[in-house]
Amino acid sequence: MAKKKLKEAAAEAAEQEENPDAEYSRYVIGIDLGTTNCAVSYIDTHEDEDSRETKILEIPQIVDQGRALSLKTMPSFMYIPGKSDVGEGWANLPWDDTRNYAVGFFARQRGSERPGCLVASAKSWLCNHAVDRKGEILPWQSQEEITKVSPLVAATRYLQHLAEAWDYQMAQEDESLAIANQEVCLTIPASFDAVARELTAQAAAQAGLGEVTLLEEPQSAFYSFLSEEGEKWRSACSVGDRILVCDVGGGTTDFSLIEVKDEDGDLVLERVAVGSHLLMGGDNMDLMLAHRVSARLKDEGTQLDRWQFQALTYSCSRAKEVLLEDVSKKEEEITILGRGASIFGGIVTTALTRDDVGEVLIEGFFPKVGKDEFPVKKPRAGLATLGLEYASDPAVSRHLAQFLGRNEGARPTAILFNGGVMKAKPFRDRIVEIVRSWGDDVRTLESVDLDLAVSRGAAYFRFATRGKGVRIRAGVARTYYIGIESTLPAVPGFEPPLQALCIVPFGTEEGSTIELPQQSFGLCVGEQAVFRFLSSNERKDDSAGTLHDEAPQDLEELEPLETAMSWKGHEGEIVPVTLEAHVTNVGTLEIFCVAKNADQRWKLEFNVRTGAEEE
User: Fold this and answer.
1) What is the pLDDT of residue 22?
2) Angle between helices 217-229 and 453-463 in degrees, nearest 10
3) Are 457 and 416 in contact (CB under 8 A)?
4) How many Cα neighbours within 13 Å face the side chain of 459?
5) What residues contact residue 470 under an 8 Å CB cut-off, 6+ apart?
6) Concatenated DSSP letters for 226-266?
7) Is the peptide bond before 576 cis (omega within 30 degrees of 0)?
8) Hey, which residues does 580 pair with through a beta bridge?
9) CATH topology of domain 24-212
10) What band does 3 get if pLDDT is binned at 50, 70 and 90?
11) In what helix (H) or strand (E) does residue 577 lie, and over which residues does it extend?
12) What residue ranges do the domains of the chain occupy?
């Protein structure tokens, strides 16, 4: 037995010497959890370096009742059937014949006919502070008799499906190759705050993904460019270049600036600016097209109700993609089911034309504007329906002008496009034309397959963390503050200002710990304590410990952090503490209160509201 163990140890040592990656997982996996589409890419690190490439995992999914097919992307939709809606075994998958819901292609197709059963834009709901993200609220405002799910559960189910698809294809004969044993990089919008990042990490853990790292989508798109270019990127970019990553996807728009710098004679990359989180993209375009087609139907004598209009919106989305991909087509037919007993008798047939998709969308979303023309702020109504917080101004060009205006010292010299919307050449050409009209002589960097670039880049990044590729210096994309109540005498009619203490500056790298020993606070032990936290993606000059006597107006307030400070034998005492912040390797944020005169510390947890707390 001892000899056998010695032989095994020797074999392992020999393998380690022959393959330096043996201590890591065999595969590195990149997952694009998109608002409208998901994709999975991977690298087999055991392949020879000369033949090693990033591969795409084709994802089995339901495409019709009882029929599964493998596709390169999986639409980020979930269909929850109503009564007498589908037949037995309709959602059977190769690895599960008991499923009672579907995600992917069939969900999107069937949901365009029955929108009250369709969960969409789960990722956008995941970062919506106005709703209970762990509550069963989706499909939003549905009147169907179905079991609703929370945004967190929806995101978990998408990731679970991807994990199961991986295990079914890659780990049936070797459990060590299961996704839970691999290194995974999961992408998120650059503008996600700490709460949305934490919820995404929770979804990944509940889906069984194992060791996960979070990466911003615009960075991931640039990593895809680096992967495709190899060493040629050093001739494509030079010191002083500032690359604008313009990422317009199905539900969100993200801008980032990446600067090329010199360090000891070598080129290095640094992410220097991140835009605001904009709920605006292909979904808004689909809505605009639906309004145009609906108005045309109304002129012809057909009035659509609310649910038919929602079905029309999803149908316009599919038709738009067909017309943008096939330039030879002049129009794409759209069919809308009737309502009530005469569903099929009330079928409405119309078409989306190339003029609808081309001219209307270009002038509506990419109008020519000056570099000082920022988004139009409309007065807010006293009452409004709850829902996704879409950008009030749909002009991508105005939001881009505002982003570059806030970073005047870092004008772009090149543009890298990403996102499904930017697959359309007329949209890309218009953006380049607009930016050049602002005096920026930009060129474009070639991106391969915009539907898969984010997942490809995520796999490359995960591999680069082994020291095998180029890294972008980035860190956290926002500056975080803790709110401190001012200790001022009570004055009638005057609310004491909220102070803001910087605890995590912009750009703080993953794995960093920040201690603030110079600021002390008193905590009452044994009682529930609520902490107010704020953030900004614009303030980059504040360092840890910077204190604003009054919280600036441009700070956004996050969900509160809440904890009960329990310490046996010290109940009711006021304990002097300092603050400590830790940015995890995953990319999430942890905050601690540390007792000054004792070996005691408390972790503060983000208080994402639950339904009970709402009531």
Assistant:
1) 59
2) 80
3) no
4) 27
5) 226, 233, 269, 464
6) HHHHGGGHHHH--TT-EEEEEEE-SS-EEEEEEEEEEETTE
7) no
8) 515, 592
9) Nucleotidyltransferase; domain 5 (3.30.420)
10) very low
11) strand 574-583
12) 24-212, 479-614
List the 589-595 sheet strands across, edge first. 513-524, 574-583, 589-595, 601-606, 561-564, 528-531
Which residue in this structure is represented by tokens 């065999």? 26
Q: Which amino acid is at 164?
A: E
Please count the other Cβ atoms lying within 10 Å of the Cβ belonging to residue 98.
Answer: 8
Tell me the helices (H) and strands (E) count for the chain, helix number first: 15, 30
Given a contact cutoff of 8 angstroms between Cβ atoms, the answer to whether 483 and 503 are in contact is: no
Distances (CA, A) of 381 to 129, 377, 384, 392, 555: 19, 12, 6, 12, 22
Give the span between the Cα atoms of 519 and 516, in whole angstroms: 6
- What is this structure's pTM? 0.85
Q: CA 332, CA 299: separation in Å to the nearest integer?
A: 20
Residue 147: what are its φ and ψ, rounded to 5°?
-90, 110
Question: Check: CATH 1.20.58 for 479-614?
Answer: no
Q: Is the pLDDT confidence value at 8 over 90? A: no
Three-state DSSP state, 486: coil
In the block, residue with structure tokens 């998109």: 34
Query: Residue 339: its pLDDT value, please?
Result: 60
Amino acid residing at 316: C
Backbone angles phi, psi at 33, to 5 degrees: -90, 80
